[in-house]
Amino acid sequence: RAMGGRVAECLIFGEDGVTTGASSDLQHIAELSRQMVTEEGLGEKLRDQVFNSDEVNFFGDRARIYSEKTSEEIDAEIRTLNREARKRAEAVIKANRKGLDALAEELLEKETLDETDVARILKGATLPAEAKLHE
Q1: Hey, how many other C-beta atoms are within 10 angstroms of the C-beta on 94?
Q2: Between 118 and 59, the higher pLDDT residue
Q3: Less Cβ around it within 10 Å: N or C end of the chain?
Q4: 98 to each of 10, 52, 101, 126, 128, how far by Cα in Å?
C-alpha cells in the first residue's frame, strides 16, 4: 500500500513525473521497513532478531547500540524489503491498470468518490501471483 502511489505515478508519468506526494511514500516505506527489520525481527539474514534503533546517552543524544556491520546488514535488509514492495506494487498496478484508469477518469468527472463508487469501479481487480506473499 505504501509504495502504490509512487509506483503508479512512475508507470503513468515516468520516473521524472513523480510528485512530492508520491515521493513521501519512500519515507513511509523506509520507516516501515526499518521497523520490520529492527523491531519485529523480519528479513532474511536478521530474522528473529530485534535491535533497539537508538539509545539516548547522558547528553540526550541518540546513539546506535549495535555494530557498524550490523547497521550495514540492517540497511541491506531494508533495501531488500523496499525492492520487494516495489516489485509487488508494480505487479498489482499493471494487472489492474484498466481499473486504475477508470478510477482516474471518474475522479476527474466527479471529484470525489465514496467507498461504493471505488468498489464498483475496481470490481474484478486481481492480485497477481507475483504479488502474493503466500499461497
Answers
A1: 14
A2: 118
A3: C
A4: 16, 44, 5, 11, 14
